Structures are given as structure tokens and as C-alpha cells.
Amino acid sequence: MIHNTKCECGHQNHIGTVLCEACGKPLREDMQSQEPLEMRYDGVARRSQKSNPNIIDRVWNFFSSVKIAVYLIIITLLGSILGTLLPQENTFIRGNPAEYYGPNHGWFGELYYQLGFSRTYESWWFITLLVMIGTSLVICSLDRVLPLYRALSKQQIRKHLSFITRQKVVFTRELDVPGEDFARDMEAQLKKRHFRVHREGDALLAEKNRFSRWGPYINHIGLIIFLLAVLARSIPGWYMDEYVTVPEGEAVAIENTNYYIKNEKFTVDYYTDEELPDHLQGQLRAKLYKTQAVLYECTANCNDLVKEPVLEEVKQHDIIVNSPLSYKGLHAYQFDFDDTPKLAAVQPSLINKETGENYGSFELRMINPELNYKVGPYELELRSQYMEFAIGDDGNPTSLSRDPNAPAFFFIIKGPGLSEKGETYLYFPRQVDKQRFSQDQINRHISDRLELSVGSMEGVTFAGATSFLNIRVDTAMPYVWVGAAISMIGLIMGFYWNHRRIWLRVDNGKLSLGAHTNKNWYGMRSDVASALKKMGIEIDPKSLDNGGKNS
Q1: Which residue of 262, 283, 377, 526 pairs with 251 in a disulfide if CB–CB is 3.0 to 4.6 A?
Q2: What are the domain boundaries of the chain?
Q3: Which backbone phi and psi does 323 adopt, to 5 degrees?
């Protein structure tokens, strides 16, 4: 079926156009009443209004629906709320998240964890919702802004009479002056009110603040940039929010980077009783805690399990609260501290239990230990390390935290009397952990011949205070701010200005004036009434509403 969309003015309109893009004449038969015209998008055709849509058009129609966009936003907001009911996994500094939710929050916490709400903002469904909202913003904007631009750029000065008389602000009157003279004088009055006027004989088109029509779409552009920046955080290296535990005097690798951070010295000052209110006196309250930190960049052997990494100092900074160490987008914030001494290193000796012979000792650090040791005729290869040893639900060893609360080291020992591939040996530096986890039973037959043991406290080294640092990298944050700024500009354009248009024509001495605005009809009527008053026509602005006439 062929649709004739050519208007009597000669303009060829797109299929689905409601009002002629040039003269504004209603094109549909159901719009021939005298009710005010529906001026949304100036009556131009949109792709989402196709009468015979294909599959691509149906997808387009789905995402171009404002109702769908609202539903997506509501669902996303509800998902965000779910993510705030309990702490997210990435907020844990120590401990196993799997063992937190059930014991602390009962069946709800266990269900919360099993359903994945403990990682809400990193989940596939939450990211999918953000992508769908972004897609909706793009398609909603394109579906409306392109037709609107086409209509506004092709406005005809002399509009169809039915278009003018069916606006929400209308004035008609017989004139006793030539129409062209009236139009010329009206042009001068409207220009004083900051309208841009285009005149064609006894017809004119006046408009101002057209730029405000693009405010919602600029807002959409800002929101799209904002969403893209949020999604960009999933790109490796673009976003990190991790916690590291740095004992005094130790350098700790920052995961997923080439950087190491060292705690040269940690100091903490406490309030005296004289500085505290009465109800807090006698309690330790930190006034200032500071980490004298050094940031290193690994330049060689970064991922080598055998060779020591080569570190190059890049920055020193005293980290205190609200004064992070910052370097090339990486920020290290002072988060917390623990001034309880922690196990830093031990010097175990390898002893032959059958003969009592001591083959020698070696230094075993809790942080960044060496991977290979030579003790007498034996070689020890470190395969695994557990800072807080535990047996997981799957029956395999795991670590509950990054602190050396119950350290354990898994070695392969090679040497005389052992198999060619070596024997496994799990070593607990602390005596209490040896007994708790039954070290000799775990090591079975090798424990009858060889033993790692610290002879005295002289072979134990304790670290000073431990500093907890929050490491953040957010490359996307500048783009988040840019998107927010653009969105705010669009909101201001749309809220504080409004697009006003006035059409006027004189036919055989009869004036027909119509006006339209996208909001603030009181101001629109006031503009028309004030301009007419300057022309010597007194009129009540309220009489202009809904096609009111004054003859």
C-alpha cells in the first residue's frame, strides 16, 4: 500500500508524519477537529512509529520507549538497594567472605551470599542493566533528536492557517491597517523581547531559546559518557579498590600492578586524658597515625618465582588520613593500623630426628619469603604459603586473611634418603599451630626423620606496627566527572530556558496569531499580550489560553 505524504504546500513528508514539516498542516484525518494540536516533536515521524516494523525495528522500538527506560532505571535502583543491605565482599580487609555472611546474618546472609548479592556491582546482571540503560538513552535520543532537528531546521514562515488557530495560545482580530505594516511593527516589538524574527510580507515566525530543546539530549550525552566511564572500570588496570597490610619495615607487592609499597616506619600519637572528655578518659584514642611510605616500581623479574624482583624507588610520602600517597593515578590511603607486634620472620633449623644432627638454619620471612633454601645436604623449595591456615569447605588448604595469624609453609624437601621427586612438608612456625593442626600427622613418615624447628626465641623476629592501606586506582573517574558536568549543563538548559515560538499571518485584513512553548505557558501568554499591547491592542493574557479569541 502506497501512502501519499505530500502536503498541499508541496513538501514531501516522511511516512508517519502528523504535522507537515514545512507548513504545519495536520495530515491525518483524525486530527481535523478544532482541538489544540499535539506538538510533541513538532509532529514529525519517528522510526519507532513505523507501521510495519522488522526485527531490527522491534528492538529499536523496545529501547526507544520511555516507559521501558523508566522500568530499567527502577530495576537498577532496586538492585543497587539490594547491594547495600549487607557489606560487599570488596570491603573486607581480612577474613574469608564465605564464612562471614551465614554466621553473622543467619539464613538471610547465607542466601544473600549464595545469590551473589555480595558482589552486586560487579555481577553480570547489574552490568547488563547498565548497558541496557545506556542503549535506551542512545536510541531514545536518536529516535527523537534527528526528526526534531529536521523539523526545526525546515520551518516555513507562513504556516497553514489551521496550524496557527489550533495552538494553545491563539489570537485573531480584524485589522484596520495593512497586514504587512502590522507584521513589520510586530517584528520590531518582538525583537525587543529578544525573539529572532523571520518575516515574509504579512507573515512572520518569531522564536527564542531554541537551544533549550537540545538540553535533554545533551543531558543524555552526559549520562551516556557517565555510564561508559562506570563500565570502563571493568577494564583491567582502570579501576582498583584493594586493601594491603604492610608491616613496619616490609615492602609488599600491590596486586595487579608493578608497584611495591614499603612501610619504613609507623607512628601513632594518642590523646592524653586531659585532651579527652570525661567519659572517654582512660581509653586509647588515636590522634594521629602516620605511615612513612616508599613506593617502588618493579623494573625486572616482576613475575619471576625464582629471582628477586628489581625495585626502583619512585616516590616517598608520609601517609596520614586524607593525605594519600599519589603517583600516576595510584593512591594509597591510610585506612587503619594495628600496633600489636606481628610475627615477621623465623630462623628454623633442619634437624635429623634419628641422629639428632642439626644441618643448619635459614631465615624464613612471613612477607615475600624466598622460594629456595639450601640447608646442609638438603634443598627446600617453597611451593605454597598460607598466612592464616585453614581447611576450606572443599577439603583443601586455604588462607583466611593476609595477616600472619597462623602462618604455614608448604615445602618440597630433596636430599639424602628421600625420593627423587622429594617429599612434601608442611611447616607451622608457631608451636601452638603445630599442635592445633597436628603437623607431624600431616607430614606422616617424613616427620620421623626430619623436622624444622626454632630452637629459641632468638630465632624469632617480630615486626612493629602494621599499617592497613587502601589502594585505589580509578582511571575512569575524570570521565565520570566530565559526563556529570555535561549532564548538568543539559539539565540547566532544559530547566531554566524554554523554546518559545510565535506565528503570525494576515489574510484579507484578518490577523491570525498562534504561539507555542514547551513549558511555562504563563510566560508565553505574557510575551504575546505585551507585544500586542505595544501595538495598541489591550488584551487579558488569560483570554489567549486554549484558543481564546478577542474580536
Answers
A1: 262
A2: 1-36, 46-151, 161-209+507-544, 239-342+467-474, 348-453
A3: -135, 80
